[in-house]
Write a structure and sequence with these properties.
2 copies of one chain form a homodimer. By secondary structure, chain A is of the alpha+beta class. In chain A, 33% of the residues lie in helices and 24% in strands. In chain A, helix 1 packs antiparallel against helix 2, helix 2 runs parallel beside helix 3 and helix 6 packs across helix 7.
C-alpha cells in the first residue's frame, strides 16, 4: 500500500474541546493513522501528523475541514503564528510507494473538493503550485486573514479553486505537496556565535549555499556552544551528508571542529541510508537488499 | 510481531523432486515466509532463508526435518560441501523485536524436539553452544558423516540432545543461534593481489585483526582489479564502517585507494543506519525517529 503523510496546520490551539473534535475527525476516518499532534496556545495553532493512502487521507482532510469550519472563526482569532484560514495549510508528502506526482494529484483533488463542499477559496503551493510566483507558502500567506479580502481583489491572487472572495469565518486554505522536511542541527566545539552564523550563511540557499537548505546560527546557552540549525527541504536533491561535510569544511576554516549532529523528530529511512552508501562508497545498492524491506 | 530468520542447510542439491518436497514443507507451514532458496548440484546442498516468529519457525523446521529424513540417506550421499547430517545446519538469527536470547531458546527447543521426534543426535553451536570447545561449526562438522560414529564414541562429543550414536541415514544435526552474516566486499583501485591479501590478513580476526571479520584477497579477473572480500559475523560488535575505514587506511599504506564497496545479498537496516550515525556524528538517535519504523 502506498503511504502518504499529511501535516495539516489548524488555527486553534487554545480550546481543548475544539481540538478534541479535530482529533476525533481524523481518528474516526478508516485507513488513517494519527502519528502525532501538538497544540500551542500562544501560536493558537495545532499541527497533526497523519499517514494513509490517498483516498483515506482525502476523507480525513475533508472531515477535518468540516470540524474546523464549524468551530473556528478567524474574525475573532488571535495568535502569534501567521495564518490565512481556519485550516491554514495542508501539505501532502510522499513516504513509501508513492511519488511526488501522486501527492500533487491528491492535493488538487482535495483542494477541488474543499472548494466545492465548503465554498472556500484554496491556493495550491510548493510542488502542487500552478504559478511560480505562488509557490512559496510565506508569499501566499502574507497579509494574513485580515488582509485577505484586499489581496484577493487583485487578479494576481485569484485562488486555484473556489470563490475569489474569502470564506466569512474560514478565510482561505493553502494545500500542496512537498518533500519531507528534515530538521538537522550540527553542534560545534566552540562558543563563537559569529562562526555559527557565518557557516549558516555559507551553506543556506538564500545567501548562495545549497539549494534545499535553510540555516541559522544559534547559541546553546546551557551548553555554552554554538549550533548550525538547519531545515533540509529536499533530502534527495540536497542530501544530509553533503550538508554535514560542507559545515565541517567551513568550520575548519575557522579552526573549529564539529562536536556532533542531531536529527530532530522524524526522518525517512532513505535519508540515512544514502549517507551510509555515500561514506562507505557502496556501489549498486538496492533497497531490496535491506532485510526489513524484503519482509514487507 | 518479533521476527526471527532461519537459514537451514540441507544435504540435497541434485534431485528436484526431493527439493520440491523440502520447499513445500516450509511453504505449507502457516506464519512462515520463504524469502529465498538455492540449490547447488556440485555441493549437493540446498540453502533456505525463512522468516517468522518462534512458534512458526519451530513448526517449519520440524516439517523440514521430516521431509529431509524421509528422502535423504547420507550413506549414499556425495558432494563437495562438508556435512554431518541430512539437515546439516540450522541457525536462528534475531532480526526485529527478537533478542539473541530468544533465538538461543528457540534453538534449544527445536533441538530437543528434533532429538525426541526423530531419534537424531543434535549439537548446539555458536551462541546456543553449551561448551566453548563446541562453539564453532567447522569443529563440530570435522570428520563429516563418515567419521561421525567414531567421533561420537568419545565423551567429548556426546550430543546436546538425542542418542550418542548417529542416526543411520540422517547422521546428526547442528542447531544454533547467531547474528546475521553480512557479505561485504571492498574493491581497490589496483591490480596488485599481494596488496589485497596483505590488507585481508591485517583486518581479519584469524591473523590479528578485528574480532568478527573473515577476509581474503581475491583478483577480479574481468575488471583487472583486486578485492578484499569479507564476511562480517557480528555487525553490532564489529560494524561495517570500522572495517571500511580500516581497509582504506591499510590501502593508503601501499599507495592504493578504495574504488567502491558492495554488499552482497541481504543486510539488516541497522547495519547501515549505524554507518550513517557514525559518519554524520549523530548524537542521541533513536530508531523511533525513522519514519518507516513509526508506521509499523
Amino acid at each position: 500500500m502506498p503511504i502518504i503523510e499529511s501535516i495539516p496546520n489548524v488555527s486553534e490551539g487554545r480550546r481543548p474541546e475544539v481540538i478534541a473534535k479535530l482529533i476525533a475527525a481524523i481518528r474516526d476516518t478508516p485507513g488513517v493513522r494519527l502519528l502525532d499532534h501538538s497544540s500551542d496556545a500562544s501560536h493558537n495553532r495545532s499541527v497533526f501528523t497523519l499517514v494513509g493512502d490517498a483516498p483515506a487521507l482525502k476523507a480525513a482532510t475533508l472531515a477535518l475541514f468540516e470540524a474546523a469550519l464549524a468551530d473556528i472563526d478567524l474574525r475573532s482569532h488571535a495568535g502569534e503564528h501567521p495564518r490565512l484560514g481556519a485550516v491554514d495549510v495542508v501539505p501532502f508528502v510522499p513516504i513509501e510507494g508513492a511519488t511526488m506526482e501522486d501527492c500533487v494529484s491528491l492535493a488538487r483533488e482535495v483542494a477541488a473538493s474543499v472548494a466545492e463542499r465548503f465554498g472556500l477559496p484554496v491556493y495550491l503551493y510548493e510542488e502542487a503550485s500552478t504559478d511560480p510566483a505562488r509557490r512559496n507558502l510565506e508569499d501566499i500567506r502574507r497579509g494574513e486573514f485580515e488582509g485577505l479580502a484586499t489581496k484577493m481583489s487583485s487578479a494576481e491572487w485569484t485562488p486555484d479553486f473556489g470563490p475569489a472572495i474569502p470564506h466569512r469565518s474560514g478565510g482561505a486554505s493553502i494545500i500542496g505537496a512537498r518533500m519531507p522536511l528534515i530538521a538537522y542541527n550540527i553542534n560545534l566545539n566552540s562558543d563563537r556565535l559569529d562562526v555559527a552564523k557565518k557557516i549558516a550563511a555559507a551553506i543556506r540557499h538564500s545567501s548562495g549555499g545549497l539549494r534545499f537548505v535553510k540555516a541559522m546560527g544559534v547559541m546553546l546557552e546551557d551548553r555554552k556552544l554554538v549550533q548550525v540549525s538547519t531545515n533540509l527541504t529536499n533530502y534527495q536533491k540536497t542530501p544530509i551528508f553533503r550538508v554535514f561535510d560542507l559545515v565541517k569544511r567551513e568550520a575548519a576554516r575557522y579552526g573549529v571542529s564539529v562536536l556532533e549532529s542531531e536529527i530532530v523528530g522524524l526522518v525517512p529511512s532513505a535519508a540515512l541510508m544514502s549517507a551510509a552508501e555515500y561514506y562507505l562508497q557502496i556501489d549498486r545498492f538496492s533497497n531490496d537488499q535491506v532485510l526489513e524491506n524484503r519482509l514487507r
